[in-house]
Design brief:
36% of the residues lie in helices and 23% in strands. It is built from six helices and six strands. β3 and β4 form a beta hairpin.
Length: 163
């Protein structure tokens, strides 16, 4: 149920599908996906980067489609919702999914500990990059889902676990 969530909450997700299991195995993490909750006209939505790019779905449709187990963090320093929503929605339907990062750059970094390049915000995005970019976190492009969760946990003065 989404009643305790607020616009901007970061959802750290996993399910029992093959891709989720592979991501969790490769990253040695319990998380395989990151999404953002938002309310528009009083209705609950999820905005996220999936294989079809950054898109928005109703919360109910999102839950039915993916069946994620999730935990959430709230950014306690987030200002007014309108600029946040505008920033997030600016990528919906126009920003693709960054398969290069998922398939090449993150495995390279896992193996070598080095990042290949710094993308600009006009590049395609993957889930945790998008979520942390929306919250204006430095080096958002480097954060896998497990690292986004760890970042929120580490910065408890800025983020509060809400589930």
């Amino acid at each position: 149920m989404s009643t305790h969530l607020k616009t901007g909450d970061i959802l750290h997700c996993r399910n029992n599908r093959l891709l989720s299991k592979l991501i969790r195995w490769a990253t040695k993490s319990k998380w395989s996906h990151t999404a953002i909750y938002m309310e528009l006209n009083g209705r609950p939505f999820i905005i996220e980067a999936q294989k079809n790019g950054v898109n928005i779905k109703t919360f109910d449709n999102w839950e039915k489609q993916y069946g994620y187990y999730w935990e959430a963090h709230r950014n306690l320093e987030m200002g007014h919702e309108v600029p946040f929503v505008d920033r997030a929605l600016s990528k919906a339907g126009v920003t693709g999914y960054d398969f290069d990062d998922l398939i090449l750059k993150h495995p390279w970094r896992i193996i070598t500990g080095k990042w290949k390049r710094e993308p600009n915000e006009e590049d395609d995005m993957y889930c945790s990059f998008f979520a942390m970019w929306c919250h204006r976190e430095p080096d958002a492009y480097k954060m896998r889902p497990d690292e986004a969760f760890a970042h929120c946990e580490k910065h408890r003065g800025k983020y509060m676990k809400i589930r």
